[in-house]
Amino acid sequence: MAEPAQTAVMSAERLLDTALALAQAHGSWEALRLHELAGALDIPLADIHDGCPQKDDLAEAWFDRADRAALQVCEDQGFAAQPVAVRLERVMLAWLDVLQAHRRLTRGMLAYKFEPGHLHLQLSGLQRISRTVQWFREAALLDSTGLRRILDESALTLIFVGSFARWLYDESPGAGDSRACLARALQRRYGGSGTAGTGQSAPSVAGEAPGADPPAAGTA
What's the whole-model pTM score? Predict the structure, then answer.
């Protein structure tokens, strides 16, 4: 018998999967209605409220799923021995790969957040970006502190937001253009050759241990 926590996770996953399927059938995230979701799951609308007080919570669950996929990458054998740029590229691509299946819906989720009356969602979106970047750093095994960490978080946030924005509208096969731009941006910041897409390792920056963070700006 499943533990209560496992049952809750499975229920949350089912809720999200059903919501994505309904929105996909409608062709947009905007068209999804929570009463329709309750009907599809054959549960009272009040149960939807208990698990999802607002529609945006489903979007947050979607991004949480991407976060979990990114965190699993660091468990791969040999991951820690790869250069920083490659580790970050692998982590961030794992995040994007989850969202790839519903990229149009992902755009719709973000459009909903940025509606004029949704300032509270925009503020939570900023928190989401910060939280996700911090988890990227954890998954990539970065351990800098103080000013170096602050500068690195700022740089990585810019790379992440820019790459994500490009990826959202990238119509190249497999979003290859935005994936390549991400690799180049990480190479410029962290050195080495971004080869996560090929599964190959790249040499680390001269004089830098494979697991080291990049030098802080102005300290190279």
Answer: 0.81
Contact 171, 159 (CB under 8 A): no
Q: How many domains does the chain have?
A: 2
Which CATH number goes with the domain that contains 117?
1.10.357.10
Burial class of residue 180 (count of CB atoms within 10 Å of its CB; 0-12, 13-18, 19+): middle
Check if the beta carbon of residue 117 is closer than 8 Å to that of residue 126: no
Secondary structure, 3-state, 86-146: HHHHHHHHHHHHHHHCCHHHHHHHHHHHCCCCCHHHHHHHHHHHHHHHHHHHHHCCCCCCH
- The whole-angstrom separation of Cα 196 and Cα 198 is 5
User: Do 110 and 83 sit in the same domain of this protein?
Assistant: yes
- In tens, the pLDDT along 111-165 reads 989 888 888 888 888 999 999 999 999 999 999 999 999 999 999 999 999 999 9
The answer on 118 and 76 residing in a single domain is yes
